[in-house]
Amino acid sequence: MQQLNDPALMQHYIDKYHLQDYFSFDLQSAAVLVRYDANEILSLAGKVVNTFSILVSGECIAYMITRSDKFHCECHYKDMHFMGMVGTLWNKPAINDIKALTPCICLCFPAEVYRPILLNDVKFLRYAAEYMASHIRQSAAHFEPLETRLAAFILETEQDGAFRYNLTLCADLVETSYRHLLRTLHAFCSMGILKREEKSSYIIVDRGQLEELRMGHGIT
Hints:
The chain is α+β, with helices and mostly antiparallel strands. It has 9 helices and 12 strands. The chain has helices at 7-16, 27-30, 85-89, 111-118, 122-139, 146-157, 167-173, 178-190, 207-214; strands spanning 2-4, 32-36, 41-43, 51-57, 59-65, 71-78, 81-83, 97-100, 104-110, 162-164, 194-198, 201-204. It is globular and about 55 Å long. It starts with a strand and ends in a 6-residue tail after the last helix. The mean pLDDT is 89.
């Protein structure tokens, strides 16, 4: 973890994601920028998080290891996300570990100072209610078929019409086996949805069908 003393960069992220719109106090004076290395742990399950963190660059994962030693991905964060909002806002222990998948930058400010302010900040609370409702809806995706979960993940992580992602990590994030993931990607290719370019690299050929899959309409 490294604190970045770069007011211009902080203002860039505040403007890019319109973050000031969600708060009644001045973010530039309240927050600091913090950089995390890939694989660095941001918070641990069972611990109260004393810092409000807004991811503004990079990828993180909120996860737990079940009693049967299975990996469970609760949430995959990319670009702008409020992390651990519920626990931090109400001073409750985190229920998941959060780890950086790539180098990440977060905009952070102390919970002890700003928790009372946020709990009375109507502008923030309106956003928080919408954010948490969206998170609940996204959590329901864990119960969707693999095809639906994978289509959503491909659309979330694709770059310039291509899906290039570590497939071992992808299998963990969509909660399936590596072998089952490869079978599903092969099925997408057979249906003309994807085209395999090289190992771990796929071109999106039919975005419409991929969007249909993400909506849970099944392979046509």
